[in-house]
Amino acid sequence: MQVKKEDFPIWFGQLTDEHWSIVLKNSVCLDYNKNEIVCKQGAFATNVYFVVSGMLKVYKEYKGENLIMSFVRKGEVFGLSSIYNNATNLFSVASITPTTVFSVNINVIKNQIREYPDFAEKSIIQLNKEYADTIERIVSLTQKQLNGRMADAILHFARNIYGSDEFNMQITRRDMADFCGMSTESAIRILKELHNDKIISLEGKNVKIINKQQLESLSEFG
Amino acid sequence: MQVKKEDFPIWFGQLTDEHWSIVLKNSVCLDYNKNEIVCKQGAFATNVYFVVSGMLKVYKEYKGENLIMSFVRKGEVFGLSSIYNNATNLFSVASITPTTVFSVNINVIKNQIREYPDFAEKSIIQLNKEYADTIERIVSLTQKQLNGRMADAILHFARNIYGSDEFNMQITRRDMADFCGMSTESAIRILKELHNDKIISLEGKNVKIINKQQLESLSEFG
DNA sequence: GGGAAAAACTGATTTATGTCAGAAAAATTT
DNA sequence: AAATTTTTCTGACATAAATCAGTTTTTCCC
């Protein structure tokens, strides 16, 4: 598979062909099946990854438990937050669906940061965005209870991931639980409750938001 | 109070006198008493702040509850994470002790990022550091129970804030609770328990770590 | 220095949520 | 298509931690 710089316009769009060829020389395109680990928390960070297709989970491992920080899809980047300081991966990342990623050597990225102020600025903006999202999640995870957290997750899927109130969430209940910081049983129970209360409709992994207002109010007050 | 660029060598050390004078023209030095709000979550971010003296808490407000993200002291910076995207303050920041901050206009910072690759890199490193700390905290807050969280907090104070196993923690039990994401009563109870179990000695706000190994094991397994 | 307010503390009670145990359904492999 | 594994689901139970209610101590400030 051939990656073009136009596939990631924010990151590579402005590069001259010469510089782009340097990037290409230090990159590979990798295909993963479902449920394969792309990078492992704690290992030395060697690459920054750009998602060409598929869906992955970015998660923190702790004592056999996973806390999913985010899901990444086509056009998105991961690994940028691990390139400085001690340069070990802050997170593990695994594929949820078959996935293709464009894997760029870390030093190429660092050079770009030093040589292209625009690239540096883009990186800062990206990091700020990830950081802001993380802060919102820390509030959701620590201040809200189960219903509110699940409502947040569903709204996040609808708004930010699928851009629709009706979607197939792809992930298992277990991943959903790991994203909401609760036990699998609790996640299942609450999804069922939301279904029974006709706030969402749920058939397997297919979700449809029926009463968005009530879901938002759960997110706010639950 | 006159701030010198050598006071913040990482940020301003490399600037020419000419550029430093531009920074100074767009900055003010501000004195705060105890318990004053320096910036308010949600307000437009207009400045980046460098701590000249004193101690502040950086916290997230949610429904009257505060979750303290970090404490900042002399030489440290805050507000950098709010300058891009929608440019509203991600956090509130309030003084814990009488405090002096050097407040620099956001556009000066943004210009520096664009003009000095080194400054941009430093900013990325700073953001990465904040981000990594936040991730460690999210794990502590969501995966550990009360004892482990309190142990983390005490170890953080000893290692990162005071650099000593014996310190006056300055903050109230309530702030400690807000930092650990627990109720004030729980924070008090656990601090007392740690004292009774001779893991720390506690007299008012004076803390001394007596059995560091056990505290670390609480952090790990509690 | 005395009064008021805030902070620190303690025990009893409630509750949210995890854990356990097992059944049904779906997905995957042979 | 059958067998096996994984995922989903449900109820009963256990428990960590919040809440409530009240006391004591410390800090603040007139």
Features:
homodimer, 222 residues, alpha+beta, Jelly Rolls, Arc Repressor Mutant, subunit A, 8 helices, 11 strands, elongated, DNA-binding
Most extensive contact: A-B, 38 and 38 residues
So, the CATH homologous superfamily of the largest domain in chain A? Jelly Rolls
Helix content of chain A: 40-55%
CATH architecture of the largest domain in chain A: Sandwich
| Order of helix and strand elements from N to C terminus of chain A | HHEEEEEEEEHHHEHHEEH
How many domains, in number, for the residues of chain A?
2
Catalogue the unreliable spans of chain A.
Answer: none
**Content of β-strand of chain A:** 25-35%
Structural class of chain A: alpha+beta
Q: Tell me the number of strands of chain A.
A: 11
Radius of gyration of chain A: 19 Å
For the report, how would you describe the main beta sheet of chain A?
Answer: 4 strands, antiparallel
Strand order of the largest sheet of chain A: 1-8-3-6
Helix tally of chain A equals 8
The best one-word shape of chain A is elongated
Which fold name fills CATH's third level, the topology of the largest domain in chain A? Jelly Rolls
Overall pLDDT confidence of chain A: 94
Question: What's the level 1 CATH class of the largest domain in chain A?
Answer: Mainly Beta
Describe this structure in words.
The structure is a homodimer of 222-residue chains. With 222 residues, chain A is α+β, with helices and mostly antiparallel strands. Chain A has two domains: 5-140, Jelly Rolls (Sandwich), CATH 2.60.120; 144-221, Winged helix-like DNA-binding domain superfamily/Winged helix DNA-binding domain (Arc Repressor Mutant, subunit A). In chain A, strand 10 and strand 11 (206-209) form a beta hairpin. In chain A, the strands form three sheets. Chain A has a four-stranded antiparallel beta sheet with strand order 1-8-3-6. A four-stranded antiparallel beta sheet of chain A has the order 2-7-4-5. A three-stranded antiparallel beta sheet of chain A has the order 9-11-10. Chain A has helices at 9-12, 17-25, 106-115, 117-143, 146-161, 173-180, 184-196, 212-221, and strands at residues 27-32, 37-39, 47-53, 55-62, 65-73, 77-78, 92-95, 99-105, 166-168, 200-203, 206-209. Chain A binds chain B through residues 60, 62-63, 65, 67, 69, 81-85, 90-91, 113-115, 117-118, 120-121, 123-125, 127-132, 134-135, 137-139, 141-143, 181, and chain B through 60, 62-63, 65, 67, 69, 81-85, 90-91, 113-115, 117-118, 120-121, 123-125, 127-132, 134-135, 137-139, 141-143, 181. Chain A binds a DNA duplex (30 and 30 nucleotides) through residues 145-146, 172-174, 182-186, 188-189, 192, 204.
